[in-house]
Amino acid sequence: MNSLSYILISNENIALSLETVKSIINQRNHDFKFIVVTTPDIEDNIELLHEAMSDTNIEYQIIPSLGNSNKLEIMNEVIDGIESDYFMFLDAGDILPSYSTSHFRKFLGEYDMIVPSLFQKTFTIPQYVDYDKLKQTEDSSQLSNAKLLRQSSIVGVLFKTDLLNKCNIRLNTNIDIYAYCAMILEVASINSSILLFNGFPLYYKEDGYPTLDVLKFAENDFDDEFMDYVDRVIYSYEHAHTEEIKSFIRMDLISKLEIEFDPHHAQIAERHANNKEALNKAVAFIDTFLIDKKKPFFNLEMFSMKFKKDKLASQINDFRYRARLLKHVLTNHRTKNRSWYELKNRYTKVDPETILFESFAGQAYSDSPKAVYEYMMKTYPEYNYKWILRRPGSTRVPGHAEKIKRFSKQSYEAYSKAGFWVTNARTPLHLEKKNDQLYIQTWHGTPLKRLGNDMDNVKMPGTNTQRYKRNFRNETKRWDILISPNRYSTEIFKSAFWMKEENILEIGYPRNDVLVNRANDKEYISQIREKLNLPKDKKVILYAPTWRDDEYIKKGQYNFELKINLEKMYEELGDEYVILLRMHYLISNVLDIKGFEDFAIDVSSYNNISELYLISDCLITDYSSVMFDYGILKRPQFFYAYDLEKYEGELRGFYLDYMNDLPGPIVKTSDDLIEQLSNMSKVEKDYTEPINHFYDRFCSVDHGIASKIIGDMIHKQIQNSKK
């Protein structure tokens, strides 16, 4: 039987290494050897690795760092010492589903290289192979280099050890970012037998794209890295050891130029202006390879750069951009509205008396944009107001604001014309803010979990950490004013959003003005209670938990179970209280409260959470930033952290000390929660000092005039524009 080894190349993040170790231990088939190569960064944690492997029957070996910090050289040393017939490298955080080894072993001995497709890590990993979905290709004539290179990594690929040794194939440490590609291409070029799997996950890659994509998705400024990238490409080419690899390197650079200097790129004009020297150097290097391209205007642009006709090259790029847009308009392409906007935007005159509002990407008429709008509509009704909405027909907006469907031709015209943008979330990057437009970003909460640039690892469908940060940076560059609710948030925003303090307005959130101004308005509170049809003689508990990523299965499907024992809570508290359930809108439709309708009220679709705060006598939450808004009222809060153990790793990434800084008790079970609620007055008394301290730290900036400050500022700028 063919023997197999998995080799984990660890890094400084011991938690990620242990995640991979766990997936190895969970393999149904343990007929393999597991090797962990540590780095100096985690050698103090080697005992944790031994402890994790101690209860298994898996043969394992932990090799302290080989006295070499170069990863490619370390991997070559490991290959030199491999005794098994096959081996696979793994990076810290990579996951093998429990069935992977059993499946791989069926093909050992038949192939020289087995290449499973890369899958991005998800919260729901299959437990068995779905052979209706799993596809395999073994005819080498059908295997293109693009499929084999699979994002340019040898990690997660099974290699036949004897083939590499006989042909003396190793990682070329002199060609930097192309070393992985070169090794794959060498194996493919020697009439080897190769098997490619796709369509179903056999290997999950930890977040972060391998080396060839470092330019495309880097979080740093493009201008700081492009020249270095070109130099690395040329150096790798000069040290490549086969003509096939040299050809691949040239063609890869051409592909990068097409992507990174695509006419549709938001910063294309700046890129051309700021990277002339690097572009000239890159074009001189690829030179005659351009002749084979089937894109004549791209070729012409590159040749203009070669002959240092930088202005002409920029003009050709702009022509390519406009020709593409015009084609979309004339052919009624699905992006025709956006294309028409991009064609006209630079020529559209800005109207300083037009103010545009959008909340949560058009989901609702709500939050701080709503508060600013309502103040301005009442105080300055003479201006032109426009609301961007996903469902304008069914969304009520008071006053004379024009309601516009998001992504319609009219919405693009509004963004192009409005003198002021007021929104509480990110907007599409293709919306180009002009110099005489003011972008006011109100944001939507005091940060609890890490944001933007402060995030170490982004796990969201359709993106990765580097791409997420790069796009977020491009978004925040457009913000002229960012609203902050407190000094704590201001300091975080400077780091997380790359913001300068002079662009941050620390005045509290406009949406919270009502919490300051109406906290003791009994008539107003009575009207809200009546609107929600609440019994007059009952106190109100508000339950507003955070959205959990593991409730997401796939688009349109969510796994949710209410963790509160409603039956027991009703028995204990039902005579005195009702509970409002404010769940995330994605899971509200699977909330089951049958039999408890007189006690539990689903308010997930109620779009004004500030009103829910006002009518509530206490708040139950967990890891949600609603705690900061509710803190303005100085009312009891209960933190129902039923999955605290699972979140412990994430809690270390919070901005505040979750276990010590909260203004209320932390409970882990439904029974404990009910007991604490039964002793509300005692909790309120015991937590008087923490509640006041929490208020001073996070809520004391709120004076109930944030909407007025922003509205008056806009009015003043409009008046100044007339002078």
From TrEMBL:
Keyword terms of this UniProt record: Cell membrane, Membrane, Teichoic acid biosynthesis, Transferase
Record's bilayer topology term: Peripheral membrane protein
Subcellular location: Cell membrane
Pfam families listed in its UniProt record: Glyphos_transf
InterPro entries: Glycerophosphate_synth, Nucleotide-diphossugar_trans, TagF_C, TagF_N, Teichoic_Acid_Biosynth
One of the record's GO cellular component terms: plasma membrane
Example of a GO biological process term: teichoic acid biosynthetic process
Domain of life: Bacteria
Record's keyword annotation contains Cell membrane: yes
Family to which this protein belongs: Belongs to the CDP-glycerol glycerophosphotransferase family.
Listed name of the protein: CDP-glycerol:poly(Glycerophosphate) glycerophosphotransferase
Protein encoded by which gene: tagF_2
